[in-house]
Design a protein that fits this description.
Length: 147
């Protein structure tokens, strides 16, 4: 298992890709992403010129979640309840107990909720030929030099 990597703010990088607009993030480490991208280049003869240019690898971290305020959560629930069970235009006021309970609930939510949405937090430039030489030297004869 690869060692966890973090950005300069301490956020764990959970996915890597060589496409900054990747819709599906599958690569859990930088080398996996690089290997997949270079392999794609190698299997398309018209793309082999890309091996002479730097390759950018993007590190993605889970997006930070903006949690609502405790009072906002209570007001949303009260509004929903008042719509169904309230007395017309009379709105229920949140109590201190409701807000305190909401604060505790939001602490648990902040700790337990895992965002799937990710954002780029790191960019690394690599030399594809150098990477191949170091990580996949067998590709040099079999794929890189094939034309």
């Amino acid at each position: 298992m690869a060692q966890k990597q973090f950005d300069e703010n301490g956020r764990e990088i959970v996915f890597w890709d060589c496409c900054e607009e990747a819709e599906t993030l599958n690569h859990e480490n930088m080398d996996e992403a690089i290997e997949a991208d270079i392999e794609n280049i190698l299997f398309h003869a018209e793309k082999k010129e890309l091996l002479s240019k730097p390759l950018t690898v993007y590190g993605f971290a889970r997006m930070l979640v903006d949690m609502p305020t405790a009072k906002g959560v209570v007001l949303d629930i009260i509004e929903s309840l008042d719509d169904e069970y309230g007395a017309g235009d009379d709105y229920t006021e949140p109590t201190a107990k409701m807000i305190n309970a909401s604060e505790e609930f939001l602490k648990v939510m902040a700790k337990e909720y895992v965002s799937f949405a990710c954002e780029i937090v790191k960019e690394v430039q690599i030399d594809p030929m150098e990477w191949i030489t170091t990580h996949k030297p067998e590709w040099l004869d079999k794929k890189v030099n094939d034309d």
